């Protein structure tokens, strides 16, 4: 369980760094929604 939490925290931090580099809020929200959708699809392995 510690490894899963560490993995999640690592990628949350990576996402925060990427958001600092993106130009505006719309692009940040679009990127976050895209990542959530891809993650959902990968998690359920349809």
What would you say this structure looks like, in words?
- The protein is mostly helical and 46 residues long.
- It has one domain (2-44).
- 87% of the residues lie in helices and 0% in strands.
- It has 2 helices and no strands.
- The protein has helices spanning 2-21, 25-44.
- The two termini are 24 Å apart.
Q: What secondary-structure arrangement, pairings included, does this model have?
A:
Layout: H1 2-21, H2 25-44
Key terms:
46 residues; 87% helix; 0% strand
Regions with pLDDT < 50 over 5+ consecutive residues?
Answer: none
Share of helix among residues?
Answer: over 70%
Strand content: under 5%
What is the gyration radius calculated from CA atoms?
12 Å
Strand count, sense and barrel status of the largest sheet are: none
Based on secondary structure, the structural category is mainly alpha
**Shape field:** flat
Mean pLDDT: 82
Q: What is the count of β-strands? A: 0
Number of helices: 2
End-to-end gap: 24 Å
H and E order: HH
Summed up, the domain count is 1
Tell me briefly what this model is.
The chain has 46 residues and is mainly α. It has helices at 2-21, 25-44. It has one domain (2-44).
